[in-house]
Amino acid sequence: MYRIVLSTVALLSLVFSPALYGQQTAEKEATEKKVAEETREPDVVFVPTPQEVVEKMLELAKVTKKDLVYDLGCGDGRIVVTAAKKYGCKAVGYDINPVRVKESLENVKKNKVEKLVTIERKDIFKLDLSKANVITLYLLPSLNVKLIPQLEKLKPGSRIVSHDFAMAGVTPDKKVEVKSKEDERGHTVYFWTTPLKKEKKEEESREKAEAVTP
User: Fold this and answer.
1) How many domains does the chain contain in total?
2) For the chain, does the N or the C end have fewer beta carbons within 10 angstroms?
3) Domain with 97 in it: what CATH number?
4) Element containing residue 175 per DSSP (H, E)
5) pLDDT confidence of 43, banded at 50, 70, 90?
């Protein structure tokens, strides 16, 4: 009887060990992925957007109380805070830098908009943006382009505004110049609506590439 019990235990170990090993491996990979994301260096150096530019970005986007604003790379949170205070809308600021997240949270608390504004530490290139009506950006041109697949999933009529940098291959609906008293220089604000208006050259290149693909 004793031998039978031992044999049964040994058999069960053989059956469940691969599953257990697989679970442990998956958990380890998930942990390593999370650590890698949390320690990833920011894609850009934080440079605050002058308040006059913030105001113009939100004005161009025609933000209303019913909108949900996402600021990708929120810095000190000034855009989402302004959106909440001025328009009474909900807003979410995303940044991968823990220092910026801390500053944003302090700014939200200082301006007493905790009920409207959320700050999250996340990689903006892995976000689902589809719930937002308005997206605000102050990134590099190459990063704007990198976001296009995510931006194309926004609901029709969603608005996107970018401080200083365009989006190669996509025609803006408007481009406005703003002179800031804060830093005494000119700034450009780009405005797009969805669906994005792809430039003809890019569309033609894509169609040709698809035509020669076996």
Assistant:
1) 1
2) C
3) 3.40.50.150
4) strand 174-180
5) confident
Strand order in the sheet with 174-180: 117-121, 90-95, 68-72, 134-137, 159-163, 185-193, 174-180
In whole angstroms, how far apart are CA 117 and each of 67, 184, 214? 12, 30, 49
Burial readout 180-213 (b: 16 or more C-beta within 10 A, e: otherwise)? eeeeeeebebbbbbbebeeeeeeeeeeeeeeeee
CA 26 from centroid of its chain's CA atoms? 26
What is the separation, in whole angstroms, between the first and last Cα of the chain?
66
For residue 154, tell me if it sits in a domain.
yes
Q: Which tokens sit at 128?
A: 């689902």
pLDDT at residue 42, rounded to an integer: 74
Closest Cα to residue 79, out of 114, 37, 106, 48?
48
Residue 32: pLDDT above 50?
no
Domain encompassing residue 89: 51-200
Pick 68 or 19 by higher pLDDT: 68
Structural domain contains residue 103: yes
pTM assigned to the model: 0.77
Q: What's the gap between Cα 75 and its chain centre?
A: 12
CA angle in degrees (0–180, nearest 5) for 31-34-37: 150
Report DSSP letters for 37-80, one per residue.
HHHPPPSS---PPPHHHHHHHHHHTT--TT-EEEEES-TTSHHH
58 and 124 in contact (C-beta within 8 Å)? no
Asked whether residue 69 is assigned to any structural domain, the reply reads yes
Q: Kindly state whether residue 26 falls inside one of the protein's structural domains.
A: no
